[in-house]
Amino acid sequence: MIMTPNYVKLVENTPLPRVALCRQTFAATRIDDPAAAVKDAMQAACVDKIKPGMSIAITAGSRGLASLPELLAAIVDQVRARGAHPFVVPAMGSHGGATAAGQSALLAKLGVTEETVGCEIRSGMETDEIGVLDNGMSVRIDRYANAADGIILFNRIKPHTSFRAPNESGLAKMLSIGLGNQSGAENCHARGIDNVGIFVAHMARMKLERCKVLFGLGTIENAYDELSRVVALDSEGMLEAEAPLLQEAMRNMPRLPLGPLDQPTATGELDVLVVDEIGKEFSGTGMDPNITHRFSSPKMQVHLHISRLAALGLSPRSNGNGNGAARADVVTERLEADFDREAVYANALTSQVLMQAKMPMVMPCDRTAIQTAIKTCGAADITQVRLLRIPNTLKLEYLYVSEAMLPELRDRAGFEVITDLQEMQFEGGLLAANWPDAHA
């Protein structure tokens, strides 16, 4: 007979609020034909650098980019149409447990296989040193990519989760960290997370000068996690050309419905945020701090204070990498069971942000995790808890809103209450994942 732990008994009578399904509407531009967008972008003059017979390495990262397999397949087709020989290189630093097999497996979870993209995937962790920065840092690049006749950088451009700089997550970071594999990524993080943006730029510039980078293809997504734009950037002046695209990506990001709409991010106070899933395809830190304002660096500006955050599960596509679970206050036993130390610890040791590898309080199920968050959130009256529930930090179109929050949100521009108030639905302790289809 399984006995209920005493600590569970302390929360099991905590009342749960009634919630209503709501919808946010964001201004958005969407590309419905990724292959055509790639073809159009690759008409740029820089694409003339692809010559018949060349071997071309194309980078693929660990993030769940919108239309990722289709975009990679389209790049492969365009390279092959010009008489060159493409292959894909996993370029994800220490992700995938910092092993070649792990990185290939992570790509497969994202739908990227030799069959879906139409070319060979060459996965290896070996690197070549191409130079040393003035401070002694070794600058390294994936050996397969370095041996190719040319490199095409491919990545999504978006705000980073832990630092601010002219170039954050995008082509520069793909070049400096992603293509550095574990050793190169570790070097870039060696002086702490607050300095990563500086070394991303320094290492990227050296690689652009000394390696065979032809050009980069960057994508920008809209607030619905959909492809919004594909751009080609020549290797010459790439970092300067990428900077305004980062600002565009920032403006495109979704947000929680808190604070004035004319502010670039959510602001204010929230008692409880429930996140159904964390994972690498949603954010490098499992949950995007640009949404939750729970950053790794104390230097990041925080405009939103969430008293308690409950993370319920780890996405299967994250391949066990529960990096960032520590940013929750409470998680479930099922998330803990899926938490792979091999993947998480390799990631944390490389980034040197050890906080990301910690495990918060663990409760048996979704119900008790949410009850724990409510009981300890500090609200004057927990029967009137201000609670939001989201599927993950990437998709914020639909969300559940507690009864106490509805009056302040009903008349919010771009906000719609979809259903009547209802009790939270659980099946064997699991919160029912009854999310509508995404934006269409």
UniProtKB/TrEMBL annotation:
GO MF annotation terms: lactate racemase activity
Domain LarA-like N-terminal stretches: 50-189
Name of the protein this chain belongs to: DUF2088 domain-containing protein
Gene3D superfamilies cross-referenced by the UniProt entry: 3.40.50.11440
Pfam families the UniProt entry points to: Lar_N
Matches recorded under InterPro entries: LarA-like_N
Superkingdom classification of source: Bacteria
